[in-house]
């Protein structure tokens, strides 16, 4: 009985610790509405991932050209490097997608601001007629 209560409490505690992270900012330290900063962050992160991707591609090329240099663990290293390549490609794609989304949001906000300015610039008397 006590064990099941303890299990329930521990699972609720684990759930409560994971929930706030789901509602956290997209990027720590950058406001969700600062689209220009988020675009810059995601594009810079994508470039860093591209650098790591190229390093891993060079390693994979080396493993494939000279497998005898790596002994018994060469295939494990090759598999791990290939997995890293796929992970970097996925991250780059996600980062560029996030950057594009923020570009669209920024353009939409600019368009909305322009509409608001045009609306304010109208002559209030002409609007009544």
Structural description of this entry:
The protein is 81% helix and 0% strand. Helix 2 packs antiparallel against helix 3. The chain is mostly helical and 129 residues long. About 5% of the residues have low confidence. The radius of gyration is 25 Å and the shape is elongated. The chain has one domain. The protein contains 4 helices and no strands.
Briefly, what is this?
By secondary structure, the chain is an all-alpha fold. It has helices spanning 2-22, 35-65, 74-121, 124-128. It has one domain (28-128).
Can you tag this structure with a few keywords?
129 residues; mainly alpha
How would you summarize the topology of this molecule?
Blueprint: H1 2-22, H2 35-65, H3 74-121, H4 124-128
Over all CA atoms, what is the radius of gyration?
25 Å
Q: Into which percentage range does the β-strand content fall?
A: under 5%
The tally of structural domains comes to 1
The count of strands amounts to 0
- Into which percent range does the helicity of residues fall? over 70%
Task: Compute the separation of the termini in Å.
Answer: 77 Å
What is the chain-wise order of helices and strands?
A: HHHH
Oligomerization category of the chains in this entry: single chain
Backbone structural class: mainly alpha
Q: Supply the number of helical segments.
A: 4
- Global mean pLDDT: 81
Shape: elongated
- Main sheet makeup: none
Unreliable residue stretches: 19-25
